[in-house]
């Protein structure tokens, strides 16, 4: 279940706090589990700011809080506040992601819906293992383009489902989605996953080693479903990590 944390802060040093947030983003690249954050300034009260941070789940939020970089930045943030910030923890029970026009105009935008569908694949399917959801997200004739395969293009959802199972059996995937760009009928998602090598992978027996991989996936949508996907990722970097063994 998606989890949101609301941070209520009063400060006369917002520019310093904004730079501190930039430092945290840079320091936790590839490790943080937060997927979206926004900061609002109170129009009625000077120095009153509210930050809303979204996580795939409460468990992901806890992993994010346990990062040493988060502890350090939080201590510095408290020092910049006029009073100690307050926190509100929320489990999201309804999520209507609205497009640019608003419901009074053209309603939910196709681009907004497509971005949400792409996120659901990474969060609910690839990370959480809800493979049954793939029938809802993907078109039956899905075309899969994967630069890491001997046969780079495969047609059919079952091939994609088998691929997801194979990766999940080898690693306990935890995705960080860095950015999404949508245009026309395509959505490009830049991601990093971190996981423990727990199963056989391309001849590499399980090592228990924690590894990471970066990549970009572009999905093409048709009638609201993912009809085609192009996967580009750092396979060479992953193999080097597995071959080097635990540090």
From TrEMBL:
Pfam family, one: SnoaL
InterPro entries on file: Cyclase_SnoaL-like, NTF2-like_dom_sf
Top-rank lineage group of the source organism: Bacteria
Gene3D superfamilies named among the record's database cross-references: 3.10.450.50
GO biological process terms, semicolon-separated: polyketide metabolic process
Protein name: Ester cyclase
Lineage of origin: Bacteria, Bacillati, Actinomycetota, Actinomycetes, Streptosporangiales
